[in-house]
């Protein structure tokens, strides 16, 4: 079937009142980015809908990629036919033949933008419905809850027909909700937390702490590869790599072993917050899930979180590990996260970390050393990279969200 265009429905975005314009232009921008390597297609976005004009491009690849773009509720490939009853009847039948099964139900919804068209919407619904009933494809009419709602739009230049509704990724266009810093480890959880934040429109900048020589170049590469997968959602992603060795060694030497984890997390959060301030972010995202490990009890979160009043978002808080793993598989980060290379936390993990650390005690142990210069030095020596998806062909092989 030769489709003319793809009709895109915004869904939730439509309810955003005054911000609507900004949301739509962000989505248009994001779609434009996603299809930059498709020559010929054109994007039109208006108040209620957007259209991708295919101009001869095969719709399959376009549909595949559209499924990964946040801010789209659903979309439908649209057939363009000439403005006469016979052509419209044939078009509707052809589409239903392809997309329906016998004994399912349908309904015709005609919209007549061109009032000069000789048949009004009621007449058209009957002319088209009758044609389908007589055609022998076995469909019945149900005007209340049809399996297939056939949309027929009669415009000045032509008639547009669509029957199939393909679910979009939902969410909000990436970039429409402001910026936050994602604390990205090499683990399974934090990339998923980043992905889910992007789903709600957040522009994400990643911060990773590494501790050479305790952690290897490969552990860093793993994080870069994870960032690359996330970049396929947003077009690009900034990654800040913070040298953390000295601070970790100092913590090891300074605080009792069972609270080193708490202290480590506190310094990570503190440094991330300073990078956030420079980057003009508004929040910090972690991959924490309540009760998953010792550092993720409420007591631990309380002791760790007290270093900042910046909102710390935890999109995975209520999720079980299996749910998180399933999302990781879906988005293509699971295999990368599962590579064996250690991160800085596993190496320094105490054998018996406190599950109920006391904030005041940890503060007291830390107070023996002035960490200010160490923090300053770590931030000074932070390397920042901008990661973009590889060329699309390579992406498809490795890990692409499209
Ligand atoms: P993940 O699978 O995301 O590594 P986890 O289950 O291993 O999470 P923790 O090791 O307790 O849990 O880490 C909790 C959160 O702290 C991580 O989800 C991540 O947001 C952050 N974090 C941990 N290690 C690092 C690191 N080296 N660099 C940046 N952030 C980190
Ligand atoms: Mg981890």
Structural class: alpha/beta
Q: Could you say what the CATH topology of the largest domain is called? A: Rossmann fold
- Output the helix-strand order: EHEEHEHEHEEEEEHEHEHHEHEHHHHHEH
Total strands:
15
Q: What proportion strand?
A: 15-25%
CATH class of the largest domain reads Alpha Beta
What does the largest sheet look like? 9 strands, mixed
List cofactors, ions and other ligands. Answer: adenosine-5'-triphosphate, magnesium ion
Q: Quick check: average pLDDT?
A: 91
Uncertain runs: 391-402
> Which oligomeric state applies?
single chain
Number of domains: 3
Question: What's the tally of helices?
Answer: 15
Fourth CATH level, the homologous superfamily of the largest domain:
HUPs
Write down the overall geometry: elongated
Question: Key features?
Answer:
402 residues, Rossmann fold, 15 helices, 41% helix, binds adenosine-5'-triphosphate, binds magnesium ion
How is this structure best described in words?
- The chain has 15 helices and 15 strands.
- It is of the alpha/beta class.
- The chain folds into 3 domains: 81 residues, VC0802-like (2-Layer Sandwich), CATH 3.30.2130.30; 79 residues, VC0802-like; 220 residues, Rossmann fold, CATH 3.40.50.620.
- The strands form 2 sheets. Strands 1, 2, 3, 4, 5, 6, 7, 8 and 9 form a 9-stranded mixed β-sheet that branches.
- Helix 9 links the parallel strand 13 and strand 14.
- The longest helix has 20 residues.
- Adenosine-5'-triphosphate binds next to helix 5, strand 11 and helix 12.
Briefly summarize what is shown.
This protein has about 400 residues and is α/β, with parallel strands linked by helices. The chain has 3 domains: about 1-80, VC0802-like (2-Layer Sandwich), CATH 3.30.2130.30; about 85-165, 2-Layer Sandwich (VC0802-like); about 180-400, Rossmann fold (3-Layer(aba) Sandwich). Helices cover about 40% and strands about 20% of the residues.
């Amino acid at each position: 079937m030769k489709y003319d265009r793809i009709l895109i429905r915004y869904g939730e975005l439509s309810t955003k009142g005054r911000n609507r314009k900004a949301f739509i232009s962000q989505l248009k921008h994001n779609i434009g980015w996603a299809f930059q390597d498709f020559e010929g297609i054109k994007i039109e976005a208006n108040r209620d809908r957007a259209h991708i004009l295919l101009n001869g491009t095969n719709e399959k690849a376009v549909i595949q990629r559209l499924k990964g773009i946040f801010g789209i509720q659903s979309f439908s490939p649209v057939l363009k036919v000439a403005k006469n009853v016979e052509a419209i009847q044939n078009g509707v039948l052809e589409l239903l033949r392809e997309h329906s099964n016998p004994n399912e139900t349908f309904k015709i919804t005609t919209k007549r933008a061109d009032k000069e068209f000789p048949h009004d919407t009621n007449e058209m619904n009957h002319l088209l419905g009758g044609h389908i009933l007589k055609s022998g494809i076995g469909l019945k009419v149900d005007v209340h809850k049809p399996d297939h709602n056939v949309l027929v739009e009669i415009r000045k230049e032509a008639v547009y027909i669509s029957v199939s509704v393909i679910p979009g990724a939902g969410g909000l266009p990436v970039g429409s909700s402001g910026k936050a810093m994602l604390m990205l480890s090499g683990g399974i959880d934090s990339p998923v937390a980043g992905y889910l934040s992007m789903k709600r429109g957040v522009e994400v900048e990643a911060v990773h702490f590494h501790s050479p020589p305790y952690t290897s170049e490969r552990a860093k590469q793993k994080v870069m590869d994870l960032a690359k997968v996330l970049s396929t959602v947003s077009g690009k992603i900034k990654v800040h790599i913070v040298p953390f060795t000295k601070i970790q060694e100092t913590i090891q030497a300074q605080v009792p072993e069972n609270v080193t984890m708490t202290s480590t997390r506190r310094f990570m959060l503190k440094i991330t917050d300073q990078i956030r301030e420079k980057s003009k972010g508004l929040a910090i995202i972690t991959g924490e899930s309540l009760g998953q490990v010792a550092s993720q009890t409420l007591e631990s979160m309380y002791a760790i979180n007290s270093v900042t009043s910046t909102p710390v978002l935890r999109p995975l808080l209520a999720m079980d590990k299996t749910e998180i793993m399933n999302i990781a598989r879906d988005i293509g980060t699971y295999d990368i996260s599962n590579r064996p290379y250690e991160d800085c936390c596993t190496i320094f993990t105490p054998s018996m970390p406190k599950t109920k650390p006391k904030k005041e005690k940890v503060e007291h142990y830390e107070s023996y050393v002035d960490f200010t210069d160490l923090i300053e030095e770590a931030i000074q020596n932070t390397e920042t990279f901008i990661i973009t998806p590889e060329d699309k062909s390579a992406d498809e092989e490795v890990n692409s969200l499209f």
